[in-house]
Amino acid sequence: NSNENTLVTSTGGTYQGEFQPLVFFWDAQTGDQIGIIPLNEYPATSMVFSPNDELLATAGDGLTLWDAEDKTEIKALIPSGTRMTAVSFSSDGKMLVASDETTLHVFTLQP
Fold this sequence. Notes:
It contains no helices and 9 strands.
C-alpha cells in the first residue's frame, strides 16, 4: 500500500492521523496517542480533516464521516463495497467532495 505510514495533520495542527486499517490520532503538540478509529479490513486511501478540525473524512472501502474529537462515526456517506480514491473538504467546511474510480460525489454538510 503506497499510503502505509503516511501522516495527515489537521488544519489547526491539533491532530495527526495515519493510514492503516486503523486511524491513529496523536496530539500534535505532545506526540501522545489520543485515540484510534477502527476501519474495516481495508486501510483508508485518503483522509482529511475539516478546516475547523471537528470532522474527519476517510475514503477507502466506502466514505465515512467521523467526529474528530470523540473518534466516533457520524455517518457512512457511501457504504462499504465502493472503492473510494480521494476525499476533500471545501475551504469553508460546508461541502465534502469524494471520488471513486468513475464518479465525483459532492455532499453538502449540515452545520
